[in-house]
Design goal:
With 222 residues, the protein is an alpha/beta fold. Helix content is 33%, strand content 19%. The chain has one domain (5-220): TIM Barrel, CATH 3.20.20. The structure holds D-xylitol-5-phosphate and zinc ion. Zinc ion (ZN) binds next to strand 2. Its cofactor is a divalent metal cation; Mn(2+); Co(2+); Zn(2+).
């Protein structure tokens, strides 16, 4: 198994010193960018301009999590802003075919395609669509806010995904988002996650640089 991927969420960063915050997570693999529109989720964050700024400030791949309605209208904009992966919510598209079509247009832009799934949404209908996605983001909190409590029951979805991806011999990456910390990351890794988003656990830590390494070691079982 390859090394666990750690993707700190800049939602928890101090935006008045964004450059320094990004330098502090130099040990990270990806940077997670949370886009919220105040409709799909009851919170607003930032949009394509800040995403492009983050892209200028770091050479790390941007994992762009779209918590927005009508994601199909925005994928090209976020591709241009520098997204390495675009993650849309299955709850924000009409049906499974629309999700597959959107994934194909994201890949057509040269960007990795991913879907995310809210805690109340079942994963089973999506298991035969995994071949169209480079990554699946399992939400382990209700999307909208950082700093919430991890929902361990979401690991059942991770186990189902792990089994299905392995059976189909796919490379789809399983990422988890919400409440990931040194206390919860080992359970998520044991369930089969490859990649881990962490906001407050990294940026509110005294030393974000070593916290990222600690999280990776815990996930790897070192
Ligand atoms: C929640 C966002 C998360 C959030 C994670 O809606 O999608 O990425 O920033 O924050 P923590 O790690 O603090 O739960
Ligand atoms: Zn997120």
């Amino acid at each position: 198994m390859s090394a666990p991927i750690i993707s700190p969420s800049i939602l928890a960063a101090d935006f008045s010193r964004l450059g320094e915050e990004l330098t502090a997570i130099d040990t990270a693999d990806w940077v997670h960018v949370d886009i919220m529109d105040g409709h799909f989720v009851p919170n607003l964050s930032f949009g394509p301009d800040i995403t492009a700024t983050v892209h200028r400030l770091t050479d790390k791949p941007l994992d762009v999590h779209l918590m927005i309605e009508e994601p199909e209208k925005w994928v090209e904009t976020y591709a241009k802003a520098g997204a390495h992966t675009i993650i849309f919510h299955v709850e924000a598209v009409a049906d499974e075919q629309a999700a597959v079509d959107l994934a194909q247009s994201i890949r057509g832009l040269g960007v990795r395609a991913a879907f995310s799934i809210k805690p109340g949404t079942a994963i089973e209908p999506w298991l035969d669509k995994l071949q169209y996605f480079d990554e699946v983001l399992v939400m382990s909190v209700e999307p909208g806010f950082g700093g919430q409590k991890f929902m361990p029951e979401m690991l059942e979805k991770v186990r189902l995904l792990r089994r299905s991806i392995d059976e189909q011999k796919l490379n789809t990456v399983i990422e988890i988002d919400g409440g990931i910390s040194p206390e919860t990351i080992e359970a998520a890794a044991a369930a089969g996650c490859d990649a881990f988003v962490a906001g407050s656990a990294v940026f509110k830590a005294e030393d974000p640089t070593s916290t990222v390494e600690r999280l990776r070691n815990l996930a790897a079982g070192v």
